Amino acid sequence: MIARVLLSAVLLGLVACSQAAPVPQDARRDSADPTASPAPAPSVDPAELRPSEGFDVSEIGFTNGDERITMPVLVADDPSLRSTGLMHRTELPGDAGMLFEFDAPTAGAFWMKNTLLPLSIAFVGQDGTVQQVLDMEPCTADPCPRYAPADPYVRAVEANQGYFAAHDITAGWSLEVGGRRGGGQ
Questions:
Q1: What pLDDT, on the 0 to 100 scale, is given for residue 181?
Q2: Rounded to whole angstroms, how far apart are CA atoms 125 and 123?
Q3: In whole angstroms, how far apart are CA 122 and each of 34, 74, 75, 141, 163?
Q4: How far is CA 77 from CA 10, 74, 83, 126, in A?
């Protein structure tokens, strides 16, 4: 029981971003020096990411030729989960993220209202190709900026800000989505 409570507390720190219509790394900074580089976020073993708060877990892979980068993700695949996203979270493990899935192509913008972490987002088209990667900043008061790609998309992946740049994931990479582990109550 204690282990379950502790696991729930850890996972509460995992899930965080909001989405507008469809709306939507722990880049911790040294409090003594606000210009300091972000500290590296902890690595997550995909087997350790657990379903929580209604979110299933999946493993995704970004590929570019022979290069493949995998990431465990919480899956937001319905309007309620997409609206909640990663809101109110104070940390997101460095190698984890959130996958937003839509039933049809959308052009909806993401926003960062009540999202406390700086995030990067990769928008993915129907053909499974990354179309665009944007950085998004936390926002706690209106008006919050909206972040939208140039073209409609069917998936979006949020990660700690700088994750995609650190792994050289840019437009043209492919996204593969693995099976899910569910039961995210």
A1: 85
A2: 7
A3: 26, 15, 14, 24, 10
A4: 22, 10, 10, 15
| Residue-level pLDDT at 82 | 95
The DSSP code sequence of 49-62 is ---BTTBEEEEEEE
Q: What is the spatial distance between Cα 133 and Cα 125, in angstroms, rounded to a whole number?
A: 12
Give the chain's domains with CATH numbers: 2-27+41-181 (2.60.120.1140)
**Distance in angstroms (rounded) separating the CA atoms of residues 41 and 112:** 20
User: By the 8 A CB rule, do 102 and 123 touch?
Assistant: no
Q: Which two tokens stand for residue 57?
A: 């877990």
Q: What CA–CA distance (Å, rounded) separates 127 from 48?
A: 30
